Amino acid sequence: MIRINLLPVRELTAEVGRRQELVIAGLILGLTVALAATLYVFQFYRLYGLGTEVASLKKEIEPLNVQLKEVGDLQQKVKALEQKIKVIDDLTKKKVGPVKVLESLSLATPSRLWLTEFKETGGNLTVSGLAVDNQTVADFLKALSTFAYFNNVDLIETTQVEEQGVPLKKFTIKSQLSYQPPAPPAAPQKAGAGPAPETKEGKKS
After folding, report:
1. pLDDT digits (tens, 9 = 90+) for 10-63
2. Full residue range of the structural domain in which residue 157 is found
3. Are residues 60 and 89 in the same domain?
4. What does residue 55 show for φ and ψ, rounded to 5 degrees?
5. Which terminus of the chain has fewer CB atoms gathered within 10 Å of its CB, N or C?
């Protein structure tokens, strides 16, 4: 009988299998490293490109920031100028307004009514006085309301008093003052006629 020893063949086959496994493992490892290197290079160039783009955008933004600063400075100058104009306007109102208010108050006062107190605080006016009767007080309220300098004219109280034996009505009126009312529509004036206090109907009294 002939006997064949297969042990060397088996060992050789096993060795070949191990070598193939090592080769495959090496290929997989090499591919993994190559893929990782490729991804790294790709990300590097991508980040580099983004960095370049950001730098370019910053250069474009710098002039805009300068322009915005100039606009801000200009707005501050405009606000300062508006404030100066407001101050001048307020001074003009305080100079001219009271004269017109007193003139209007005088024109609205009936002949049978006498003012005893005139007080203005923060744009609120309080007027007190004496009149011969309630109708005269009502006429005064109505006349006062026609002038543009007086708003929300309201009778606060009336009481019966006697002055040197004469029965009179003592009254108190409150109103809001407007030293610079809206300008009424221009009306033709006669030659040589001066301006008169403004009424709410836009007519000259």
Report:
1. 665 666 667 777 778 778 877 887 887 788 777 877 878 788 888 888 888 888
2. 109-177
3. yes
4. -60, -40
5. N
What is the CATH number for 132?
Answer: 3.30.1360.100
Distances (CA, A) of 184 to 108, 158, 197, 198: 19, 34, 11, 8
Distance CA 190, CA 200 (A): 21
The C-alpha atoms of residue 61 and residue 69 are separated, in whole angstroms, by: 12
User: What does the alpha-carbon distance between residue 172 and residue 35 come to, in Å, rounded to a whole number?
Assistant: 97
SS3 125: strand
Task: State the alpha helices, DSSP H only, in the chain.
Answer: 7-108, 134-145
Q: Verify that 17 and 98 share a domain, yes or no.
A: yes
Which has the closest alpha carbon to 163: 110, 106, 114?
A: 114
Domain end call among 81, 102, 123: 102
In a domain, 27, yes or no: yes
Single-letter residue type at 37: A
d(CA 112, CA 121): 27
**114-to-11, 124, 168, 176, 179 alpha-carbon distances in Å:** 138, 20, 11, 21, 23
Tell me, yes or no, whether 20 and 88 share the same domain: yes
This prediction's pTM = 0.47
* Segments of the chain with pLDDT less than 50: 91, 96, 191, 194, 203-205
Region for 165 from its dihedrals, namely left if φ exceeds 0, alpha if ψ lies in -120 to 50, beta otherwise: left
Task: Give the amino acid at 174.
Answer: K
